[in-house]
From TrEMBL, chain A:
Pfam families: ATP-synt_B (PF00430). The gene is atpF. This is ATP synthase subunit b. F-type ATPases have 2 components, F(1) - the catalytic core - and F(0) - the membrane proton channel. F(1) has five subunits: alpha(3), beta(3), gamma(1), delta(1), epsilon(1). F(0) has three main subunits: a(1), b(2) and c(10-14). The alpha and beta chains form an alternating ring which encloses part of the gamma chain. F(1) is attached to F(0) by a central stalk formed by the gamma and epsilon chains, while a peripheral stalk is formed by the delta and b chains. Residues 53-91 form a coiled coil. The chain crosses the membrane at residues 20-39.
TrEMBL record, chain B:
It comes from the Bacteria. InterPro entries: ATP_synth_F0_asu, ATP_synth_F0_asu_AS, ATP_synth_F0_asu_bact/mt, F0_ATP_A_sf. It is a multi-pass membrane protein. The chain crosses the membrane at residues 33-52, 89-108, 120-139, 190-208, 220-244. This is ATP synthase subunit a. Key component of the proton channel; it plays a direct role in the translocation of protons across the membrane. The keyword Cytoplasm does not apply. GO terms for cellular component: plasma membrane; proton-transporting ATP synthase complex. GO terms for molecular function: proton-transporting ATP synthase activity, rotational mechanism. HAMAP family: ATP_synth_a_bact (MF_01393). PANTHER family: ATP SYNTHASE SUBUNIT A. It comes from Micromonospora maris.
């Protein structure tokens, strides 16, 4: 075998025992430090990240579902409100109608009453006037008669019939 | 040995196994290789502690980098090889992966320029851990007897075949696995360093030549060295990936319920 200039030839497949010791200790130290202080935290962080991502997705899904539900709810409420409003409107319309008819009826009644009262008072007045007139006509007739009697009493019987007829005519004209 | 060339530049030529064993800095405990191991450990601890001191759900750039390494090992190695069970091993695999990547990459870091894994001691340590781990997990899960039975005996085979198959399975599962694991990593790093040495040192040797043609040709050697350095990056990452994937696969087979 070719010997190197600087010294002892070492077979490369034979380990140097000091290196075995140093290698073991150094590697054990490395393992201890990293596996105790670093890598478990890394795994935790890894899981936390997975959780964060999956949790985020789950939360987003939940939020979406909730939003959909709310939307549905609002839609239902809106529809409900709409029907209610329509009903209220219908009710109001019906109320207005009934109030109108009622008022109309009242007004008609009132007007009828007023008209009836007017008619009655007219009739009463007419009656009064007729009565007064009749009394007056009687007086006038008597006046006229006495005057006629005073001037010419001839043909008394005929004149008597004339007065009677006159009065009857007068009465029938008043009743008309 | 081409003595006149070495004399000309003071460069060791051709590259040999001796280049992998530089003189100790201060005894056998403090060498370039042990220091590189401590450096790798220190760098990794600092990197992960710094980037993961204050982790947030939305990561910073450093945190994101640290997490992508973990994510790669967790999802592309552990879960791929072992299914859901693999995730609890992901922290160890991540440490293993990072350690091998960093030590492998030392092979092309200026100033270091050799991977500690080109000394077989370090791959042995890592392979032994994998070995012990998958044996222990297999025995703990199935009990010694049924683990051996499950590992060695292939179901549905005519019984005389077992005389042949049991030794093969034994060799395969209890000897070849750890040995190949260690040797594969070691050999790749060893060969990689050797290739870089050939082209770089060779380039300088050619440059020191008296012949103009050989001096000009050294450009090709340097270009090749650069190309090989990039190639080494690929090998460094790939070998780390292979080591961890096989470890996951072995542990997965220990956890499995069938052969």
């Amino acid at each position: 075998m070719n010997l190197a200039a600087e010294g002892v030839e070492h077979h490369p497949l034979v380990p140097i025992w000091q290196e075995l010791v140093v290698g073991s200790i150094a590697f054990a130290l490395l393992c201890f430090v990293l596996m105790k202080f670093v890598l478990p935290r890394m795994e935790t962080m890894y899981q936390a990240r997975v959780d964060a991502i999956e949790g985020g997705l789950k939360r987003a899904e939940a939020a979406q579902a909730e939003a959909n539900q709310l939307l549905e709810q609002y839609r239902a409420q809106l529809a409900e409100v709409r029907t209610e409003a329509a009903q209220i409107r219908d009710d109001a319309r019906a109320d207005a109608e009934s109030i109108r008819t009622e008022i109309l009826a009242k007004a008609r009644e009132e007007s009828d009453r007023i008209i009836a009262a007017g008619r009655e008072s007219l009739a009463v007045e007419r009656q009064t006037i007729v009565r007064e007139l009749r009394a007056e006509v009687g007086g006038l007739a008597v006046d006229l008669a006495s005057r006629i009697v005073g001037e010419s009493l001839a043909d008394e019987a005929r004149r008597k019939g004339t007065v009677e007829r006159f009065l009857t005519d007068l009465e029938s004209a008043g009743a008309r | 040995m081409s003595g006149q060339l070495v004399a000309a530049e003071g460069l060791p030529w051709p590259p040999s196994v001796g280049d992998f064993y530089p003189p100790d800095l201060a005894g056998p405990w403090v060498t370039k290789f042990t220091l590189m191991i401590w450096l790798a450990v220190g760098l990794l601890i600092i990197f992960f502690m710094a980037t993961y001191r204050n982790p947030k759900l939305v990561p910073s750039k450093g945190q994101w980098m640290a997490e992508s390494v973990y994510g790669l090992v967790r999802d592309n190695i552990a879960r791929e090889q072992m299914g859901k069970d693999g995730i609890r091993f992901a922290p160890y695999f991540t440490v293993l992966f990072c350690f091998i990547v960093v030590t492998n990459l030392f092979g092309i870091v200026p100033g270091l320029q050799i991977s500690p894994n080109s000394h077989i001691a370090f791959p042995i340590v890592l392979a032994v851990i994998t070995y012990v781990m998958y044996l222990y997990i297999g025995v703990r899960k199935h009990g010694l007897g049924s683990y051996l039975k499950q590992t060695l005996i292939i179901p549905g085979v005519p019984w005389p075949m077992h005389f042949l198959l049991i030794p093969i399975e034994f060799l395969q599962n209890f000897i070849n696995r750890p040995v190949t694991l260690a040797v594969r990593l070691f050999a790749n790093m060893f060969a990689g360093h050797l290739i870089l040495l050939v082209f770089t040192v060779g380039g300088f040797v050619m440059l020191a030549s008296d012949n103009l043609f050989i001096q000009v040709s050294s450009i090709a050697a340097f270009l090749m060295a650069i190309l090989m350095a990039f190639f080494e990056v690929l090998v460094a990452l790939l070998q780390a990936y292979v080591f961890v994937t096989l470890t996951a696969n072995y542990i997965g087979s220990s956890l499995a319920d069938e052969h």
